[in-house]
Amino acid sequence: MAKKVCGTNYPVSICFIVVNEFCERFSYYGMKAVLTLYFLTYLHWDKDLSTAVYHAFSGLCYFTPILGALIADSWLGKFKTIIYLSIVYVVGHVVKSVGAIPTVGNKDVHIALSMVGLILIAFGTGGIKPCVAAFGGDQFDEEHTRERQKFFSIFYMSINAGSLLSTVITPILRGDVQCFGGDCYALAFGVPAALMIVALVVFTAGSGLYKRNPPQGNILVEVCNCISFAITNRFNSSKYKPQRKHWLDWAEEKYSKRLIQEIKMVLRVLVLYIPLPMFWALFDQQGSRWTLQATRMNMAFGGSFIIKPDQMQMLNALLILVFVPIFDLIIYPLVGLCRINITPLRKMATGMVFAALAFGAATLVEVNVVKTVVDPAPPGNCLLQVVSLVKGDVSVKFPNSDLFPDPIQYLQDPHQYETLSLEAERKELMIQVTYGETNTTCFQAFEQHKAYSLLLYSDTSGIQCKLVEDNVIKSQDGNPFVRFLNTGPQTLNITVGGVMFYVPPDYSITTNRTVDRREYTDVSCCTQTPTCSSLNLGLLDFGASYSVILLENSGRIEPHVMEDVKANNVHIAWQIPQYVLITAGEVMFSITGLEFSYSQAPSNMKSVLQAGWLLTVAFGNVIVLIVAEGAGLDQWKEFLLFAGLLLGVCIIFSIMAYFYTYVDPDQLDKMYPEDGEKEEDDSEVKKHMKHNDIPLKTGKSTRL
Fold first, then answer.
1. 465-493: buried (b, 16+ CB within 10 Å) or exposed (e) per residue?
2. Strands 381-388 and 451-459: what pairing?
3. pLDDT for the residue numbered 109
4. Which spans are transmembrane here (predicted)?
């Protein structure tokens, strides 16, 4: 007999399962929270490839549960499946963490290790997904249904607690801890790896306490065999055989009428699932496109508190815990008082509308975010700004162009780049510079798509030109870029928040490097003498790109800070409405959808519908993968496209829901009493009833 928690009917074994689930969910969501920025800033992929790989991984995590269920039910049983696939899971995390260490091989090695690690993680997390909750339910005796329901409430709380804490902590480990000269992705992936090891150890520690049901076959295999037999028998039958009312009836020669009727009920629900992937296509972009949007926003709250762009995902887990009781105890009862019949399918359709509204809000935010972004030059053109270090008005003329009609003043901020036509991929242009009565001609080579600063300065021989390539792309992690131009005769060593700049003399300029966003009022600047002084650079803000011109004045070095790319001026708090809307949509769509599936499925078919539900999530990620790689749209247009597509799918789903007739699976016992009695004593079917038989009406989050 299983050991019980003192004075209760709760098996001691569930303590190990709940702790295991908390650690595993911390491991998964913690790793996934920083994954997109890892692709961008560590592997240096573009945002479209990063988004595509992120969603390919997410999709694989929801394809593999079917494999895990088959292994558990047909071969190893739940316990051994969890153990073996957790080992695969741990190996994947370790490989992923090693791939994030810069000193381990080159970029190709990092990519290879990252992809292998992600594939192993997907097989691990997906494989154990259908097993852990069901295995926890197996620990209870049949008569303790109330305790089992409370267990699942605790189980889902552990899921949300792991998700919430990990999405707060791992971005801090990534950004606030520096290792190998940059963000510490090795630590951000290493801590989730350690948590997965803890999950495996804890689960194994309880092995002597678990109640284990042996594998007795998988109902999903039986359903597929029945469908296959019906199709084959239908096409192989002679024209003289009597016709059947339904194509599945052609399986009656081998399978029971009850099983065929159960499959018909399941297929009716699965048909309703066809439009559902579009919801998940929007929902899962919180970790990809929405995180990328956050990197181009102002992330400062007050004077010192700064939120990380990948930390915003914790809002979803937090709001779930708040919204579930609000919807169950307040909103749904109030709607019921208005005599509105709120059926499950109507709730799901409303959830789709809320998700579409969330992307409408994201579109409005994106339209304002991109105002600080410098658009790249079109083909055959480049971007150019002119910075004059000459004390007086200077006129600059390009052949066949009137780009700079007004004189350029000393240290005048350019404000914006002008588009210079090259009519070729690369072209050398003659530039005429006029200063007072003096005309100077210089030649500079330009390349299309690039951005440049033309520096004008004077020396003993007259006005000189220096063409410098600029970086106008905002940093992927939201931090500012800075570079230094040294107008003096001495080499300078400048330290900005731990980042070292070696600045040669005589109008030399450093490359752009990212520094932390903050006020820099006491920046160390040393000469080779060495003589040190401090520079006041002021606030280097999110997303900006700065050129700091170092001028000598009475023996002192004075900085002149120019903003080449504007700082992010849309606050990250404007993302909160879209998170509120998408979470409200999740409560109405996801939780209700699982409840609906549970109520409309025969008892031994619930695992089949669970597999179908997980596949809708997988295909939703496939949709994002295709759009990210194939559409080539501006981000705000892509958001608007997804919102429009979901509204269109919502209309189709609403029409399908209108013609759907709700059923009571318990009526099968009355229709087939003999089969019902037989199955009542059938241990295999009892086992299937337990598999994924989660009491979803507890109202807890469906964050699986």
1. bbbeebbbebbbbbbbbbbbbbbeebebe
2. parallel
3. 93
4. 26-45, 51-71, 83-105, 111-132, 153-173, 185-210, 265-283, 317-337, 349-370, 608-627, 639-663
